[in-house]
């Protein structure tokens, strides 16, 4: 069973690297199986077609991202009970984690799929949409908890603000890769943190 799992993961690793480097359409099954040193029938044993491969890649990516966010903001909440302080700490921890990646964030499959969604089947598109909505609900819940204690200093729609958090992170990944500067993503998260701090800070006591 472990051998089956490792071969499948190898296919996913090779496919992800190719997709993030040159796109889904330009990454062929022949190229993947050549690098994986396996037969085409071996590939189809694990994935019936490229769309099933895309679903598996996206699900793995989303599971990893969710685990990272659970860990980062979970640790932040352990460090401070106040929701605003905890959120600011979480953003700082996330920025530091991104800065520590030697070559920057490996890329965003969500953005990659969104850019070329006509290539993918309905299941992939729905999964991609659900991923965006999960991020929205995560951050919206945090913001609602903050707002209950710290009314915002400016009129703002919390759902839109939750989407801005997601778009800052995802956009930071794209920008960082485009200019070849890994620190850009971390800097974008820190700037976002400053905005959140200013928006909800009614007291000089917020120094998280």
Summarize the structure in words.
This protein has 208 residues and is an all-alpha fold. It is elongated and about 65 Å long. It has helices spanning 2-22, 29-36, 40-46, 50-79, 83-100, 109-115, 122-147, 158-179, 183-200. It starts with a helix and ends in an 8-residue tail after the last helix. It is built from nine helices and no strands. It folds into two domains: 1-48, Homeodomain-like (Arc Repressor Mutant, subunit A, Orthogonal Bundle); 51-200, Tetracycline Repressor, domain 2. Helices cover 75% and strands 0% of the residues. Helix 1 (2-22) crosses helix 2, helix 4 (50-79) packs across helix 5 (83-100) and helix 4 packs parallel to helix 7.
Strand and helix layout:
Blueprint: H1 2-22, H2 29-36, H3 40-46, H4 50-79, H5 83-100, H6 109-115, H7 122-147, H8 158-179, H9 183-200
């Amino acid at each position: 069973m472990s051998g089956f799992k490792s071969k499948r993961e190898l296919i996913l690793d090779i496919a992800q690297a190719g997709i993030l480097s040159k796109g889904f359409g330009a990454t062929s099954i022949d190229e993947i199986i050549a690098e994986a040193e396996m037969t085409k029938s071996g590939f189809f044993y694990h994935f019936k077609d490229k769309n099933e491969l895309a679903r598996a890649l996206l699900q793995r990516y989303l599971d990893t991202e969710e685990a990272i966010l659970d860990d980062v903001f979970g640790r932040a909440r352990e460090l401070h009970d106040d929701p605003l302080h905890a959120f600011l700490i979480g953003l700082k921890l996330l920025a530091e984690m991104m800065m520590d990646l030697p070559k920057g964030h490996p890329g965003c499959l969500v953005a990659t799929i969104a850019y070329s969604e006509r290539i993918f089947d309905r299941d992939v598109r729905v999964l991609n949409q659900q991923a965006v909505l999960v991020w929205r609900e995560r951050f919206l819940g945090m913001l609602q908890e903050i707002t209950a204690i710290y009314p915002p200093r400016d009129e703002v729609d919390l759902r839109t603000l939750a989407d801005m958090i997601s778009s800052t992170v995802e956009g930071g990944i794209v920008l960082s890769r485009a200019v070849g500067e890994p620190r850009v993503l971390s800097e974008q998260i820190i700037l976002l943190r400053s905005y959140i701090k200013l928006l909800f800070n009614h007291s000089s006591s917020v120094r998280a």
